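Anyone up for a design puzzle?
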Protein backbone atom coordinates (compact mmCIF):
# COMPACT_ATOMS: atom_id res chain seq x y z
CA UNK A 1 0.00 0.00 0.00
CA UNK A 2 0.99 3.62 -0.46
CA UNK A 3 1.62 6.04 2.41
CA UNK A 4 1.61 9.74 1.56
CA UNK A 5 3.19 12.35 3.79
CA UNK A 6 5.00 15.68 3.68
CA UNK A 7 7.07 17.56 6.25
CA UNK A 8 4.86 20.64 5.78
CA UNK A 9 2.30 18.80 7.97
CA UNK A 10 4.61 19.53 10.91
CA UNK A 11 4.70 23.26 10.23
CA UNK A 12 1.02 24.10 10.70
CA UNK A 13 0.57 24.85 14.41
CA UNK A 14 -2.43 26.63 15.95
CA UNK A 15 -0.88 26.94 19.41
CA UNK A 16 0.42 30.50 18.97
CA UNK A 17 -3.26 31.46 18.78
CA UNK A 18 -4.67 28.99 21.29
CA UNK A 19 -2.05 27.30 23.52
CA UNK A 20 -4.28 24.34 24.42
CA UNK A 21 -5.35 23.63 20.84
CA UNK A 22 -5.50 19.84 20.32
CA UNK A 23 -4.53 19.81 16.63
CA UNK A 24 -0.77 19.74 17.12
CA UNK A 25 1.98 18.77 14.65
CA UNK A 26 3.05 16.06 17.10
CA UNK A 27 0.01 14.07 15.91
CA UNK A 28 1.78 13.25 12.66
CA UNK A 29 5.10 12.75 14.41
CA UNK A 30 3.48 10.21 16.78
CA UNK A 31 2.00 8.32 13.82
CA UNK A 32 5.35 8.17 12.04
CA UNK A 33 7.20 7.03 15.16
CA UNK A 34 4.73 4.16 15.54
CA UNK A 35 5.07 3.29 11.85
CA UNK A 36 8.84 3.41 12.13
CA UNK A 37 8.83 1.09 15.16
CA UNK A 38 6.61 -1.33 13.26
CA UNK A 39 8.91 -1.22 10.23
CA UNK A 40 6.40 0.52 7.91
CA UNK A 41 4.35 -2.66 7.33
CA UNK A 42 3.51 -3.08 3.68
CA UNK A 43 4.04 0.61 2.99
CA UNK A 44 5.67 2.30 0.05
CA UNK A 45 6.24 5.85 1.28
CA UNK A 46 5.68 8.75 -1.11
CA UNK A 47 6.15 12.45 -0.53
CA UNK A 48 2.92 14.33 -1.25
CA UNK A 49 3.07 16.88 -4.05
CA UNK A 50 1.57 20.32 -3.58
CA UNK A 51 -2.00 20.77 -4.82
CA UNK A 52 -2.35 23.24 -7.65
CA UNK A 53 -4.76 26.14 -7.28
CA UNK A 54 -6.76 24.46 -10.05
CA UNK A 55 -7.10 21.34 -7.87
CA UNK A 56 -8.18 23.39 -4.84
CA UNK A 57 -10.73 25.12 -7.08
CA UNK A 58 -12.33 21.74 -7.87
CA UNK A 59 -14.12 22.22 -4.55
CA UNK A 60 -13.34 25.65 -3.10
CA UNK A 61 -14.19 29.18 -4.17
CA UNK A 62 -11.38 31.46 -5.30
CA UNK A 63 -12.25 33.82 -2.46
CA UNK A 64 -11.83 31.05 0.14
CA UNK A 65 -8.45 29.97 -1.22
CA UNK A 66 -7.33 33.60 -1.34
CA UNK A 67 -8.53 34.22 2.24
CA UNK A 68 -6.43 31.34 3.62
CA UNK A 69 -3.41 32.42 1.56
CA UNK A 70 -3.63 36.11 2.45
CA UNK A 71 -4.24 35.57 6.17
CA UNK A 72 -1.04 33.52 6.33
CA UNK A 73 0.76 36.23 4.39
CA UNK A 74 0.00 38.90 6.98
CA UNK A 75 1.24 36.72 9.82
CA UNK A 76 -1.88 34.64 10.50
CA UNK A 77 -5.06 34.79 12.52
CA UNK A 78 -8.33 33.00 13.11
CA UNK A 79 -10.91 32.01 10.51
CA UNK A 80 -13.40 30.77 13.09
CA UNK A 81 -13.18 30.31 16.86
CA UNK A 82 -11.11 27.11 16.61
CA UNK A 83 -9.57 27.35 13.13
CA UNK A 84 -6.32 29.23 12.82
CA UNK A 85 -4.01 30.08 9.97
CA UNK A 86 -0.33 30.73 10.57
CA UNK A 87 2.33 31.60 8.05
CA UNK A 88 2.92 27.89 7.23
CA UNK A 89 -0.73 26.83 7.15
CA UNK A 90 -1.53 27.49 3.49
CA UNK A 91 1.53 25.47 2.56
CA UNK A 92 0.60 22.58 4.89
CA UNK A 93 -3.01 22.57 3.67
CA UNK A 94 -1.87 22.64 0.03
CA UNK A 95 0.33 19.58 0.58
CA UNK A 96 -2.49 17.82 2.47
CA UNK A 97 -4.82 18.37 -0.48
CA UNK A 98 -2.03 17.47 -2.88
CA UNK A 99 -1.40 14.20 -1.06
CA UNK A 100 -5.06 13.25 -1.38
CA UNK A 101 -4.98 14.10 -5.10
CA UNK A 102 -1.79 12.09 -5.68
CA UNK A 103 -3.33 9.22 -3.75
CA UNK A 104 -6.39 8.96 -6.00
CA UNK A 105 -4.28 9.39 -9.13
CA UNK A 106 -2.11 6.45 -8.02
CA UNK A 107 -5.10 4.33 -6.98
CA UNK A 108 -7.02 4.94 -10.20
CA UNK A 109 -3.87 4.22 -12.22
CA UNK A 110 -3.67 0.84 -10.49
CA UNK A 111 -0.35 1.50 -8.74
CA UNK A 112 -1.80 0.11 -5.49
CA UNK A 113 -5.07 -1.24 -4.14
CA UNK A 114 -4.95 0.73 -0.88
CA UNK A 115 -3.36 3.93 0.41
CA UNK A 116 -3.21 6.20 3.42
CA UNK A 117 -2.53 9.95 3.62
CA UNK A 118 -0.97 11.02 6.92
CA UNK A 119 -1.26 14.73 6.32
CA UNK A 120 -2.72 17.69 8.19
CA UNK A 121 -4.59 19.96 8.56
CA UNK A 122 -7.67 17.77 8.22
CA UNK A 123 -10.41 18.61 5.76
CA UNK A 124 -13.87 17.20 6.38
CA UNK A 125 -15.37 20.26 8.10
CA UNK A 126 -14.23 22.68 5.37
CA UNK A 127 -17.02 23.80 3.07
CA UNK A 128 -16.74 25.30 -0.38
CA UNK A 129 -16.40 28.83 0.93
CA UNK A 130 -15.61 28.34 4.60
CA UNK A 131 -12.86 26.95 6.84
CA UNK A 132 -14.06 25.49 10.12
CA UNK A 133 -13.30 22.88 12.77
CA UNK A 134 -9.49 22.93 12.28
CA UNK A 135 -10.00 22.33 8.52
CA UNK A 136 -8.84 24.66 5.74
CA UNK A 137 -9.28 22.70 2.49
CA UNK A 138 -11.48 19.61 2.19
CA UNK A 139 -8.87 17.04 1.16
CA UNK A 140 -11.25 14.12 0.69
CA UNK A 141 -13.77 16.17 -1.28
CA UNK A 142 -11.05 17.53 -3.56
CA UNK A 143 -9.78 14.00 -4.16
CA UNK A 144 -13.28 12.67 -4.91
CA UNK A 145 -13.99 15.53 -7.28
CA UNK A 146 -10.65 15.08 -9.03
CA UNK A 147 -11.43 11.39 -9.57
CA UNK A 148 -14.81 12.21 -11.12
CA UNK A 149 -13.89 15.22 -13.22
CA UNK A 150 -10.45 14.22 -14.43
CA UNK A 151 -9.83 10.51 -13.93
CA UNK A 152 -12.95 8.98 -15.46
CA UNK A 153 -14.41 7.67 -12.19
CA UNK A 154 -18.20 7.72 -12.25
CA UNK A 155 -19.07 6.93 -8.63
CA UNK A 156 -17.14 7.58 -5.40
CA UNK A 157 -18.03 6.35 -1.93
CA UNK A 158 -16.81 8.58 0.90
CA UNK A 159 -17.05 6.95 4.29
CA UNK A 160 -16.38 9.27 7.22
CA UNK A 161 -15.67 7.51 10.53
CA UNK A 162 -14.37 10.58 12.39
CA UNK A 163 -16.32 11.08 15.65
CA UNK A 164 -17.51 14.45 14.30
CA UNK A 165 -19.91 14.80 11.39
CA UNK A 166 -18.18 15.55 8.09
CA UNK A 167 -20.39 18.55 7.40
CA UNK A 168 -18.11 20.05 4.77
CA UNK A 169 -18.05 16.93 2.61
CA UNK A 170 -21.79 16.47 3.14
CA UNK A 171 -22.55 20.01 1.94
CA UNK A 172 -20.18 19.87 -1.02
CA UNK A 173 -21.90 16.73 -2.35
CA UNK A 174 -25.40 17.34 -0.93
CA UNK A 175 -27.07 17.58 -4.35
CA UNK A 176 -25.02 14.88 -6.07
CA UNK A 177 -25.82 11.27 -6.89
CA UNK A 178 -22.29 10.38 -8.05
CA UNK A 179 -20.82 10.63 -4.54
CA UNK A 180 -22.35 8.50 -1.81
CA UNK A 181 -21.39 10.15 1.48
CA UNK A 182 -21.82 8.10 4.65
CA UNK A 183 -20.83 9.44 8.06
CA UNK A 184 -20.87 7.68 11.42
CA UNK A 185 -20.47 10.24 14.19
CA UNK A 186 -21.39 10.96 17.78
CA UNK A 187 -24.85 12.47 18.22
CA UNK A 188 -24.85 16.07 19.43
CA UNK A 189 -21.13 16.62 19.07
CA UNK A 190 -19.54 19.47 17.04
CA UNK A 191 -20.65 20.77 14.55
CA UNK A 192 -24.19 19.63 15.37
CA UNK A 193 -25.12 18.62 11.83
CA UNK A 194 -25.58 15.09 10.50
CA UNK A 195 -29.09 14.19 11.58
CA UNK A 196 -30.28 10.78 10.45
CA UNK A 197 -33.18 12.55 8.71
CA UNK A 198 -30.81 14.53 6.46
CA UNK A 199 -30.41 12.27 3.43
CA UNK A 200 -29.23 14.89 0.93
CA UNK A 201 -31.25 17.09 -1.42
CA UNK A 202 -32.56 17.13 -4.98
CA UNK A 203 -30.73 14.67 -7.21
CA UNK A 204 -28.64 13.78 -4.16
CA UNK A 205 -31.59 12.66 -2.05
CA UNK A 206 -30.63 9.30 -0.53
CA UNK A 207 -26.94 9.75 -1.34
CA UNK A 208 -26.14 11.17 2.09
CA UNK A 209 -26.26 8.63 4.89
CA UNK A 210 -25.93 10.11 8.36
CA UNK A 211 -25.56 7.70 11.24
CA UNK A 212 -25.38 9.51 14.57
CA UNK A 213 -24.55 7.20 17.48
CA UNK A 214 -25.07 8.03 21.17
CA UNK A 215 -22.17 9.14 23.34
CA UNK A 216 -20.53 6.14 24.95
CA UNK A 217 -21.01 3.98 21.85
CA UNK A 218 -18.38 1.29 21.49
CA UNK A 219 -17.32 -1.18 18.86
CA UNK A 220 -20.58 -3.16 19.02
CA UNK A 221 -22.58 -0.14 17.86
CA UNK A 222 -20.04 1.31 15.42
CA UNK A 223 -19.37 -1.98 13.62
CA UNK A 224 -23.06 -2.86 13.66
CA UNK A 225 -24.10 0.36 11.92
CA UNK A 226 -21.19 0.05 9.50
CA UNK A 227 -22.09 -3.53 8.60
CA UNK A 228 -25.87 -3.29 8.56
CA UNK A 229 -26.64 0.32 7.57
CA UNK A 230 -23.66 1.66 5.59
CA UNK A 231 -22.23 -1.32 3.72
CA UNK A 232 -25.43 -2.55 1.99
CA UNK A 233 -26.03 0.82 0.27
CA UNK A 234 -22.30 1.07 -0.45
CA UNK A 235 -22.40 -2.28 -2.23
CA UNK A 236 -25.55 -1.34 -4.19
CA UNK A 237 -24.00 1.98 -5.22
CA UNK A 238 -21.09 0.15 -6.93
CA UNK A 239 -18.43 2.82 -6.34
CA UNK A 240 -15.32 2.69 -8.52
CA UNK A 241 -13.30 4.40 -5.78
CA UNK A 242 -13.67 4.31 -2.00
CA UNK A 243 -12.31 7.06 0.24
CA UNK A 244 -12.27 7.03 4.02
CA UNK A 245 -12.28 10.23 6.04
CA UNK A 246 -10.26 8.52 8.72
CA UNK A 247 -10.53 10.32 12.02
CA UNK A 248 -9.49 8.48 15.16
CA UNK A 249 -11.27 10.64 17.74
CA UNK A 250 -13.92 7.99 18.45
CA UNK A 251 -11.17 6.20 20.41
CA UNK A 252 -12.09 5.82 24.08
CA UNK A 253 -9.07 7.87 25.16
CA UNK A 254 -9.71 10.80 22.83
CA UNK A 255 -10.25 14.11 24.62
CA UNK A 256 -12.72 15.50 22.06
CA UNK A 257 -15.13 12.56 21.70
CA UNK A 258 -17.07 10.40 24.13
CA UNK A 259 -17.11 7.12 22.23
CA UNK A 260 -15.30 3.93 23.19
CA UNK A 261 -13.49 2.50 20.21
CA UNK A 262 -10.13 0.78 20.56
CA UNK A 263 -7.33 0.61 18.01
CA UNK A 264 -8.64 -2.83 17.07
CA UNK A 265 -12.08 -1.35 16.36
CA UNK A 266 -10.59 0.85 13.65
CA UNK A 267 -8.81 -2.20 12.25
CA UNK A 268 -12.16 -4.06 12.13
CA UNK A 269 -13.81 -1.15 10.30
CA UNK A 270 -10.87 -1.09 7.90
CA UNK A 271 -11.26 -4.86 7.32
CA UNK A 272 -14.96 -4.45 6.48
CA UNK A 273 -14.21 -1.66 4.01
CA UNK A 274 -11.21 -3.48 2.53
CA UNK A 275 -13.45 -6.48 1.87
CA UNK A 276 -16.05 -4.19 0.28
CA UNK A 277 -13.29 -2.74 -1.88
CA UNK A 278 -12.17 -6.23 -2.92
CA UNK A 279 -15.74 -7.33 -3.69
CA UNK A 280 -16.25 -4.30 -5.92
CA UNK A 281 -12.78 -4.19 -7.43
CA UNK A 282 -12.61 -0.55 -6.30
CA UNK A 283 -9.39 0.87 -4.85
CA UNK A 284 -9.46 2.25 -1.33
CA UNK A 285 -7.73 5.32 0.07
CA UNK A 286 -7.88 6.77 3.58
CA UNK A 287 -7.11 10.36 4.54
CA UNK A 288 -6.30 11.40 8.10
CA UNK A 289 -8.90 13.61 9.78
CA UNK A 290 -9.09 13.91 13.62
CA UNK A 291 -7.61 11.98 16.54
CA UNK A 292 -6.10 13.92 19.44
CA UNK A 293 -4.78 11.45 22.00
CA UNK A 294 -1.31 10.93 20.58
CA UNK A 295 -0.57 7.31 21.63
CA UNK A 296 -4.15 6.22 20.81
CA UNK A 297 -3.96 7.97 17.45
CA UNK A 298 -0.63 6.39 16.58
CA UNK A 299 -1.75 2.90 17.62
CA UNK A 300 -5.05 3.26 15.75
CA UNK A 301 -3.45 4.48 12.52
CA UNK A 302 -0.96 1.62 12.62
CA UNK A 303 -3.81 -0.87 13.19
CA UNK A 304 -5.79 0.67 10.32
CA UNK A 305 -2.88 0.63 7.89
CA UNK A 306 -2.08 -2.97 8.80
CA UNK A 307 -5.71 -3.94 8.17
CA UNK A 308 -5.91 -1.98 4.91
CA UNK A 309 -2.82 -3.85 3.79
CA UNK A 310 -4.63 -7.17 4.26
CA UNK A 311 -4.21 -8.28 7.87
CA UNK A 312 -7.23 -9.73 9.66
CA UNK A 313 -10.74 -10.50 8.50
CA UNK A 314 -14.01 -8.64 8.87
CA UNK A 315 -16.08 -10.29 11.55
CA UNK A 316 -19.84 -10.13 11.14
CA UNK A 317 -21.77 -9.02 14.20
CA UNK A 318 -25.49 -9.06 14.94
CA UNK A 319 -27.32 -5.73 14.58
CA UNK A 320 -27.52 -3.94 17.89
CA UNK A 321 -31.20 -3.64 18.83
CA UNK A 322 -31.41 0.11 19.45
CA UNK A 323 -29.23 2.30 17.27
CA UNK A 324 -29.01 0.13 14.18
CA UNK A 325 -32.73 -0.50 13.89
CA UNK A 326 -33.51 3.19 14.40
CA UNK A 327 -31.13 4.47 11.71
CA UNK A 328 -31.99 1.55 9.41
CA UNK A 329 -35.61 2.72 9.44
CA UNK A 330 -34.51 6.03 7.87
CA UNK A 331 -31.84 4.77 5.49
CA UNK A 332 -34.23 1.98 4.43
CA UNK A 333 -36.37 4.58 2.65
CA UNK A 334 -33.67 4.84 0.00
CA UNK A 335 -31.71 1.59 0.10
CA UNK A 336 -32.39 -2.10 0.60
CA UNK A 337 -30.81 -3.09 3.90
ZN1 LIG B 1 -13.09 14.83 14.55
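Challenge accepted. My sequence:
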Amino acid sequence: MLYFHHPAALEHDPRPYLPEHPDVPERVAAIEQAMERAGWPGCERRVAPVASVRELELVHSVSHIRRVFELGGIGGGELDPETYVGDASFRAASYAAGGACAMVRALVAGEARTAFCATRPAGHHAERDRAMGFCLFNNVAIAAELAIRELGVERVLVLDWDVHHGNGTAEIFRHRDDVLFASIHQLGLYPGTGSVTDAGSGDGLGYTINVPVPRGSGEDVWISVLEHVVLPPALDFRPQLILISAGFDAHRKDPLGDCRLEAGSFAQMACHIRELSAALGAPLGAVLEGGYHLPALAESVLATITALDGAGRAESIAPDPLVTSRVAAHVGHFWTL
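A detail worth pointing out: The pocket of zinc ion is lined by residues 162-164, 247, 249, 289-290 (CB under 6 Å).
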